[in-house]
Write a structure and sequence with these properties.
The protein has helices at residues 15-29, 74-87, 102-114, 135-143, 154-163, 205-216, 233-242, 261-266, 282-289, 320-332, 335-346, 351-363, and strands spanning 2-6, 33-39, 66-69, 91-96, 118-123, 148-151, 168-171, 192-196, 222-226, 249-252, 270-273, 294-297, 312-315. By secondary structure, the protein is of the alpha/beta class. Strand 11, helix 9 and strand 12 (294-297) form a beta-alpha-beta unit.
Amino acid sequence: MKVAIVGPAYPLRGGIAHHVYCLEKELTGRGHTVDVISYKRLYPRLFFPGTTEKDDSTSKLDPHALPILTPLNPITWARALKAIKAFSPDVVVFQWWQPFFAPMIGMLGRALRRNGIRCIFECHNVMPHESSPFDRLLLRFASKAADSFITHSEADRNILLALVSGKRIGVAPLPTPEIFRGGTNTTRAGRTILFFGKVRPYKGLDVLLAAMPEVLSKLDCRLTIIGEFYDSVDNCRNLIRQLGLDEHVSLEDRYVNNEEIVEIFDRVDVLVLPYREASQSAVAHIALSNALPIISSSAGGLSENIVENVTGLIFPAGDSTALADQIVSYFSNSLGPVFAGNLLSARINKNSELGQLVEDLAQSKHKATSF
């Protein structure tokens, strides 16, 4: 089978670019011929709050993509369409995460289907975390170009079922690049908490910080924050200072290169995901792949990654008091070694599930509401 993937890829950085690499490797490993069409630029500079879109990691996750697309330039859409048609795929897998890309993806998908090419939308978020009044309209426009969908959580599948009809929807866990899997810390017997990844308001870092004074009144621990701030890092530093947490919190405002990730996950004892809203989390899958237990909010599909009281703990989204109680319970009851042991014994590579689902949807000859 010939598969085209349309989505961000190296030298663009970020979780979806990592994902495209994983998907290309998985499908190639299953004997398929794969072509990746990527972007020259994802966002106009005005809309991009980070330092750069380019990945300068030494360990490159490079699927050898063709960087053609610019979302606001229809001339590049035509070039991408020409390249895909020349490749003559059986199926095209579009990466969907933001309605900003709906006009481009919707138009490309319609043109491809007119040429008899099946289109799958792989949804990292069905709806964006920071919404606008036009999101549903844009999603509906784009979704008409899809034959079927993939989501990475049941929560997102349920959202999608309410918004589209007559489409097949499959669910598969997010794959984790092999370079992010491993580590040597199998005990997790210390008291270091990790908050990891780009920092945006919906990720609830302030909820975690608000919980820390209560935690520290009962036991000693440290919080390590590592990620690029898309909100004001000064506001975060001021909050740390106001809460009297300076001696207990370390903060690194930066994008983390690929080769650093395993070492970071190796030197901490629990990952906290205090998200107010979520669809799923690549960070959670990296943690589980490294036998790192998780304390997670109940937002969206996050709790689907965790077997409560076996591999992690769950608290109501936005509730800093409940989060403090779970952190205290985790450390006071020495749950780190127990949960890490459970994760080690159950650790399997789930990357193949996504590849199998793409095959199934690509070869499907009928439509259904779910799958």
